[in-house]
Every structure is written in C-alpha cells, then in structure tokens.
Design brief:
Strand content: 25-35%
Distance between the termini: 65 Å
Number of strands: 14
Mean pLDDT: 85
Shape: elongated
Number of helices: 7
Largest sheet: 6 strands, antiparallel
C-alpha cells in the first residue's frame, strides 16, 4: 500500500495527496511541493498514512522537501508581494474599465506563475488586462473568476458565532444550502441573521442539518400532546440542542408553561400539520 502525505495548499478547497518521498513528514509540517502552478508551500494536515492502491488514480508527485526557515521566510515575502500586486490589480482593472472586482493575488513559490482571482456578475474580456499584468510582473498570468462563497473562503474572517468562517476552517466542496434548513433549525428567517459574509445562506446550516434531523426524530413537534410528570399538556416550544421541551400544563386550574427534559415526557399525540387542532381532553 502506497504512503501519501495530505497537503493543504493556499486557497485550495481540499487537501491534495503527494508522495512523501521517504521524508519524515508529520501533521503541521510545512512542505514544498510541485503543482500545476509551479512550486508551492503547503501545510501537511495529517501524518503520512497508507492508502489502498485502488484509491490512487495516477502516480503522485513527490514532496520536494520539508520547508526550511529560509523557505518560510521567502513564503512570507511572497505573501507581502501578493498584497502589493493586489493594489496594482485594482488600478489596472480601473484603467481597463472592466466590470470586475479583484479578490486576491497568489504568486507561486518560484514566482514563475501568478494567479489573479476576481468576482464578476458577467463574463469578462480581460485580454487587455492580462497584457498589462504580464508587463507589470513579468511572469505567467492566470485569471480565475470565483464566486462570492469562494471569495469569503479565501479572505477569511469571523462568522456570527465568533468562530472562523466554516468555509475557511473546514474546507471541502461547497454543498447546497436551503431556507428549509433554517426553518427546521428554528432560526429567524431574517436574511441578516442567516446569511454569511458572502451574502449567501450560511454554510453551518448544512453542516449542522444532520445533527438537527437526528435530534428531531426523538422530539415532539410544537402542538403535540405529551404526558409529563405534572400531567398531560401541549408542547409550545422545543430546544433540540438543549434537549428541553416547553409544555403548557394545568396547574391549580390555570395554564402554566413548564420545561422538561426529553426523557421526562411521553408523546401521546404527535402534531404533524399546522392546521391540525389538538384536543387536550382526548
């Protein structure tokens, strides 16, 4: 079984496999690898592991070396050049009167290749811009149009929760997110509350959907009739994450809302539709 090193490249949405070439690579090591864009510094996300030969579709490129202090220092210098190039990118876009918004610039480690990322609502004829960029930087130019979600992942930031954006922290391919997920997770259907910095529905809605679906299987819906330690009542609210159900019960001939753990209640009649009337005297 072949050994592989799993490496995360800058701005990549997934990890890529490389041949460790006998090097003692550990998770957290920075390594120098060869890619289609030239040599790049990447982060090894796992220790070297064996994989089934059937999983590999073609020979892997070898890791050139574990990054040295000089390599990391050069990588920092190139990152600074990326920011300087981004300012030039903005200026040349304005000069060419193009309807596009520059997002980022990425030079390869050997500076033989530069990728210019941008967003635009339409297809852009950037042939004149490419000529200007090639004249300014004297390297191979690659223009790449990305979407708002890709841009948010590249730029990074914090979400409403205060944590790093899911797209940047977790990586992986983007999955479809629907408003139905927000409804099932009992979130306010306010665009400012359920949209990320990209302006699209938050990725965490999809990431957490499976957990909500699993929890909801054992929980009654609002309007269901349940048996509690204090008698029969109607569910008026459910907190799936806390495992708490709020129930309206009779207390000394008055209606009172009490909270119960899911284990404390028994479902008598499950409410399935908003139009269904629940009779507490059944």
């Amino acid at each position: 079984m072949p050994l592989v090193a799993s490496v995360r490249l800058r701005y990549a949405s997934q990890d890529y496999w490389f041949d460790p070439a006998g090097l003692d690579i550990k998770a957290g090591d920075h390594v120098l690898v060869e890619t289609s864009k030239g040599n790049e510094i990447g982060l090894c996300t796992h220790d070297v592991v064996d994989v089934d030969e059937a999983e590999g579709t073609k020979p892997l490129k070898p890791v050139i070396r574990i990054a040295t202090e000089e390599d990391l220092a050069k990588s920092d210098e190139i990152a600074a050049r990326d920011q300087e190039a981004l300012a030039v990118f903005h200026d040349l876009v304005e000069k060419n009167h193009l309807d596009m918004s520059p997002s980022a610039v990425e030079f390869s480690f050997d500076e033989s290749h530069a990728t210019f990322y941008f967003t635009s609502d339409e297809r852009v004829d950037f042939r004149g811009l490419v000529r200007d960029l090639a004249a300014a930087f004297h390297t191979r130019i690659d223009m790449r149009q990305i979407g708002p979600r890709d841009e948010a992942r590249m730029l990074g930031g914090l979400g409403h929760c205060g944590e790093e954006l899911c797209c940047a922290r977790l990586g992986g391919e983007f999955q479809p997110v629907s408003i139905r997920m927000a409804k099932e997770q009992d979130l306010p259907l306010n665009p400012t509350k359920i949209s990320g910095t990209c302006g699209r529905l938050m990725c965490c809605l999809k990431n957490e959907q499976a957990a909500y679906e699993a929890l909801s299987k054992n929980a009654p819906s609002v309007g269901s009739v349940v048996e509690t330690p204090d008698g029969k009542g109607e569910v008026c609210a459910v907190s799936l994450l806390k495992g708490i159900v709020s129930v309206t019960v009779d207390a000394e001939n008055e209606k009172e809302i009490k909270d119960y753990n899911l284990k404390q209640i028994k479902i008598i009649k499950l409410h399935r539709s908003k139009g269904e009337k629940v009779n507490l005297d059944e």
